[in-house]
Design brief:
26 helices; 43% helix; extended; four-stranded antiparallel sheet; 667 residues; alpha+beta; nine-stranded mixed sheet; Transposase Inhibitor Protein From Tn5, Chain A, domain 1
């Protein structure tokens, strides 16, 4: 075997080929073993050694020499490519039985059987199945994507589903998975900009792809679009991101990374948790200001049919937004009221009778009561689980508030903070940080006081008089701390004890005092576990309203999946189009993830994708080398035996794992 460069009609660059000499009836000839394309580079000085390693690996021979790791890496790639394509048999000798139809048999040396070139199969197999089940290839072909671009898009989305690498990290990831066995691609020909270009093209057709994709999910899973869930999240950047006008700093950073610029992502989900559409806003966009954009799009979509019921939490609730919803006469909504509106029903929460929502665990009891009012309906809700959670949160916030006040108090007492203006500012910041809790805390600060009165009938030493004047000036100007003031006075007393005792001193230490106002605290605590819903769906009873509203938890699950499992954050891009493309590919990966989890839930399995991925990651593609007694080595590349735990998941998801490609060749 040896390497040669060959010219191709389709490329200006030479194609690297591994070839071998064979004997034919017409004399010696050169036959191509494998073509390695134009981008696979091996220095000419290393080619003979790499060819020798490839031949040894294919023949199952043990090498007498140790080779450089880089040479072995080149050889491993070539051997795997030969085994994957399965097109080559050595011409020097053949096992005729291996070529016969029917059962194929051969005698082998059992002790010399080798196993290697293992690549992860399970997660890729599930992802590829759902990629095709959701009709991604057909959707992309409709918008003039070439077959190579469709496969590149699939790789980008599957990587986001499984490994969440950057665009530059996708190619190294491909070395670890059985992507070439399933898709029949040669990723060694990929350039690093390939995945940036496919991101740009996917983003170009974002709205069309999202619409087609949801329609496919709607047909596949028999979904209804009568309920829409709406909420916002954000994704931050570790950098300045100066080339993205949407990237803004905001104090409303959900990951507490206010030091990083962010963009805001709005999601619209249906009642089953499938993403209907998404939109990317600038980083300062608040929940309440984004609603009109989404409602306008919904009106266009549902212009010829009844509008859905839109559900969102109290972050969206403002008078302007409620008026906006009312202006669309046929739009129905269910929202959680803000606390100021909730407080109007304190008496009702405490005195009226509620009934328990049926079908829930008694330990998670929820009580509801309906209150009609003109053209809307209020639903008062009490939740034991929510009450315990809010009480624990309240107690925790109180402890943190008091800890900060104690720290400030210690600094004041030790003289590390003496300026009353700065102290009041720090108290104000603490109150702002613990807003809800500090509302029922009385916090007062009294500054240090120092004055003295000299006796009129007794003459006092001039020196002590001058010293006291200077101390008074420093105390009034806040240039001396209380501990230092006490120390100075003690020195004066010791030095001028006779005169000092005749002076009337007025000395009060600075004091920071705090404590809860119990009446207000009890009133606030009385609202723990209570919340108020508002809707214009007057056709629903109390249980129906509550059950519709709690579907909003699905959008929180979606945010969790996007951030924890699909690499939405942090976003390492700097250009606006690349940021939006990163988010869109993450959304497409979510479509796969949610379809997988939804199908499992329908069949009674409530495992999350992270668990499924971990389990099936032990199902691999491998090569088995079988040295025969006749001489040649049989190389078989095939999937591992699926274990029971793999088969259970595959069967639940209707994933075909029994007829995957098997490649055989002789060496």
């Amino acid at each position: 075997m040896f390497f040669r460069n060959n010219r191709s009609k389709n490329s200006k660059l030479p194609v690297l080929q591994l070839v071998e000499n064979i004997r034919t009836a017409r004399g010696p000839r050169v036959r191509i073993v494998v073509s390695l394309g134009t981008k696979f580079k091996i220095p000419k000085s290393d080619r003979s050694a790499v060819a020798r390693i490839v031949k040894e690996r294919l023949s199952g021979q043990l090498s007498l020499f140790s080779y450089d790791a880089q040479l072995v890496g080149h050889a491993d790639y070539i051997v795997k490519k030969i085994q994957t394509e399965g097109k080559w048999d050595s011409a020097r000798q053949r096992v005729s039985e291996f070529k016969e139809s029917g059962r194929q048999t051969a005698e082998i040396f059992v002790e010399d059987v080798e196993h290697g070139y293992t690549r992860e199969l399970g997660p890729i197999l599930i992802g590829d199945t759902f990629w095709n089940r959701l009709n991604f290839p057909s959707i992309l072909r409709e918008y003039k994507f070439r077959e190579s671009e469709i496969k590149t898009a699939e790789i980008a989305v599957l990587n986001r589903l499984i490994s969440q690498d950057s665009e530059n990290g996708i190619i190294p990831w491909l070395w670890t998975v059985a992507i070439d066995e399933l898709l029949g691609i040669d990723f060694m020909q990929f350039g690093h900009d390939r995945f940036y270009r496919i991101s740009d093209k996917l983003l170009k057709y974002q709205s069309y792809i999202e619409e087609e994709l949801y329609q496919r999910e709607k047909d596949l899973f028999s979904l209804e679009d009568c309920i829409f869930l709406y909420d916002l999240t954000n994704t931050y950047f570790e950098g300045v991101c100066a080339r993205n006008p949407k990237a803004k700093y905001s104090k409303n950073q959900k990951e507490k990374r206010s030091d990083c610029p962010q963009v805001v992502v709005a999601l619209v989900l249906d009642g089953d948790g499938f993403i209907r559409r998404h939109r990317v806003f600038e980083g300062k966009m608040s929940d309440s200001k984004s609603l009109d954009h989404i409602v306008e799009e919904l009106e266009k979509e549902f212009s010829d049919k009844s509008m859905p019921t839109i559900i969102f939490d109290r972050g969206m609730v403002t008078e302007e937004n409620i008026e906006l919803l009312k202006s669309y006469g046929n739009l129905k909504y269910i929202v959680m009221c803000r606390s100021n509106e909730e407080k109007q029903f304190i008496g009702t929460f405490q005195r009226e009778e509620f009934h328990i929502v049926e079908g829930r665990d008694p330990k998670k009891k929820v009580e509801v009561m309906i209150k009609p009012s003109a053209d809307i309906v209020y639903l008062l809700c009490k939740s034991e689980g929510r009450k315990n959670k809010e009480q624990a949160m309240r107690n925790n916030r109180e402890k943190k508030l008091e800890k900060q006040l104690t720290n400030l108090q210690n600094q004041i007492q030790k003289g590390r903070e003496n300026n009353p203006v700065k102290i009041e500012q720090r108290i104000g910041r603490i109150k702002e940080r613990f807003g809800k809790v500090s509302q029922y805390y009385a916090i007062t600060y009294t500054h240090q006081e120092f004055s003295y009165t000299l006796p009129e009938d007794v003459k006092i030493s001039k020196r002590i008089s001058n010293s006291l004047v200077k101390l008074k000036e420093k105390a009034d100007g806040n240039t001396i701390t209380f501990p230092a003031l006490e120390k100075k006075l003690a020195v004066i007393q010791e030095k001028y004890a006779f005169d000092f005792d005749k002076i009337k001193m007025h000395l009060i230490a600075p004091a920071l005092i705090w404590g809860p106002i119990e009446e207000i605290r009890e009133k606030e605590a009385g609202l723990d576990g209570n919340y108020l819903l508002k809707t214009n769906r007057t056709d629903l009873n109390a249980d129906e309203i509550w059950k519709l509203y709690v579907t909003l938890t699905r959008i929180e699950n979606a945010f969790g999946d996007l951030k924890s499992y699909l690499g939405l954050r942090p976003n390492r891009h700097h250009r606006e189009d690349r940021v939006d493309g990163h988010i869109f590919i993450t959304i497409l990966a979510y479509h796969l993830l949610h379809s997988i989890e939804y199908m499992l839930r329908v069949k009674g399995v409530h495992s999350r994708w992270a668990t499924i991925k971990r389990v099936v990651s032990t199902h691999n593609y491998s090569t088995v080398q079988l040295p025969t007694t006749a001489g040649p080595v049989i190389n078989i590349r095939k999937p591992d035996i699926a274990e029971g735990i793999h088969m259970e998941i595959y069967d639940k998801l209707d994933v075909g794992y029994k007829h995957l490609p098997v490649r055989r060749n002789l060496a």
